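> @MW can you paste both from yesterday?
MW: sure, first one:
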Amino acid sequence: MTDRYVHGYDSKESERLLNQANSVLDLIHADTTYPACSAVLEVGCGTGAQTMTLARNSPEARVISFDVSARSLREAKLRLDSEGLANRVEFVGADLFALPFPERSFDHIFVCFVLEHLSHPIEALTSLKKLMKPRGTITVFEGDHGSTYFHPDSVEAHEAIRCLIELQRRGGGNANIGRQLYPLLQAAGFDSVRVSPRMVYVDSSRPHLVDGFTRKTFTAMIEGVRNAAISQGMIKLESFDAGIQDLYRTAEADGVFCYTFFKGVAKK
């Protein structure tokens, strides 16, 4: 992919992606399985956080996962090998806008947390549609940072979140793209488009989400842009750090955190 990945490719980001995948696994994958012998393309697989579950849930499908980052692909291969899943997936180094696959190669395409980083998401979807067989399906899963709300509320926390949204916009992406999945899929010419919101609701009765999502996924993601936001003059250091502390505050016993993902499914 030619657009800039605002979160970077270091080990902390790899760990965050794995925490995200594990914390919202059922939300993403519970109703996403592919039949035996079907050819499935995973777009922008990164370090394999979603690939592992795709391979487990559809063990008889043929999965091809690609990414532009050679480092991420190496980590994905190691991760699946450690889980005994490496023989179920073929990894390919490729750019989304210069894919090496012939048209009408795949029964299904899986896109997760990719469109938000692209300056031309409709162009990407249109290109992917060419790779699908007639009556094939595409599944697109995206977040929407503007959907975030929490208790206790905090002006500083919202300002810190807005820094990430703005950084992503400056890099050509759209951190609020989840709410646009329906018109994007329609504009790319897909049929039978269906979009459903998938809310993550977190309170202290769900400790796995408090730790895995509120702390280690969302707050870690915002915290990761601290230096960039401050160096670009978006926010004062003291305000950003206060916002991060307030986000961690929502993970305490009386805190509540809400975030909405969007899942789109369509046919060619």
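MW: second:
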Amino acid sequence: MNLKKFTQGYNRDGIVGFINVLLGKLGFKFRFKTLFEKRIKALQQNLKRISKNIVQSGPYSSLKISNNMKWSEMDYSPKILGIYEKEVQEELIKWNCKNFVNLGAAEGYHALGQLISDTKQKSYVFEQNQDSKMILEENVKLNNLEKKIMIFGKAEEDFIEILKKEKINLLETCFLFDIEGAEYKLLNNKNLEELKYSKIIIELHEDKKKQDEFINILKKNFNISFFKTKDRDLSNFIFLEGYSDIDRWLLASENRPNLMNWVKLTPKK
């Protein structure tokens, strides 16, 4: 048994964190909420009332999000504020590509947001979690985007063949990979050769040695740059002016276990 996770849980959330790790090890899905999580939940309820579940700022402004909270309780608020993965949003909208492919689309925040931003004509998404796919389908209907999106299941190593069957021109396509480390498997030599003229963003994960090896492979065909989570400006949200500093920053939190990093790939040729 990995005792490190118990230590991390305890250091982060005290006895509640320790118990939650234990519940996970025993196979239970239930988790006790920390005081911070309870406060975030209360703040979310106020934000839902104020926003009516519509994204309030940024390139995804006016995107409607399902009231169904199954997909996430802890990152709803930054998504509604429009500041969730702000750096990813900003990089993607610079690419005025015809197609957007999102592997690990969850409830469709980026896949639908890119369509709302009018920088992409069509989104193709892969998502293996059935609850997330259900919420994604709800969000598609809420935004009347049924004709602009195609939804697939789990992305496997043949994902490019699936896209080709839809007659997608990879030269006119940009990609976002958020698949918790599975990119090491999916982006094999064959697929990287197919994608060498496409534009790609990959959310990086923690295994430093594996990550470095992966980056060295990517450098063969792509120009590479890195970016990470930066600042958030909450001063433009008038409805938050009466909130305490702590509450405003809790609303901005994406509930990450560590600072997020992404790699951006652009074709060398």
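> thanks! The chain has a mean pLDDT of 90.
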